[in-house]
Amino acid sequence: MSTMTTIMLMPPKATSLQHSNFKPSTLRSRSSPTKSSYPTVRMQTRFHRLIEDQGIVLMPGCYDALSAAIVQQSGFTAGFISGYALSASVLGKPDFGLLTPPEMAATARTVCAAASMIPIIADADTGGGNALNVQRTVRDFIAAGAAGCFLEGICVASRLYLQRSMLQKLHPQEMPLEIQTFS
């Protein structure tokens, strides 16, 4: 069994496996892993079509050219660049946001080149900071060949205006510490 991380995406109309068009046989492409089902279509469009056609897309995580080639050669129809796996392989540390967006985009370029017949979605973490950094990061991932990317929102502690009742609902045992932190 592989230790690769997987993400399953479902179309908005499907609310569970039982209500979607999920069939285990659709998790892998029946065509040759080196031939795309949509050879002349942009990767973003290919990914959207996969979701429409399959209902659920199983995307093994990869972190370098070799793992991406394995994903493609194994017959999967898509893959994603795992931020945690990338950080662990490059830095030997968990995904604490230590990799910069240009480093992640450079890896995306080699991953997408190694698995050029399937769409690859990349973990872009927070995009690198403010809105301009996020725009640049997304452009860099597109230029690298990624079909899309995940972006995470962050909260800046100095801009949080939390009410005591909100904190009690989140972590009642840590409320005094949280109030000190955000006050």
TrEMBL record:
Coiled coil start-end: none
A molecular function (GO) term: oxo-acid-lyase activity
Region entry Disordered, spans: 16-39
Pfam families in alphabetical order: PEP_mutase
Domain of life according to the entry: Eukaryota
Protein name per the record: Isocitrate lyase
Organism for this UniProt entry: Gossypium tomentosum (Hawaiian cotton)
Classification of source organism: Eukaryota, Viridiplantae, Streptophyta, Embryophyta, Tracheophyta
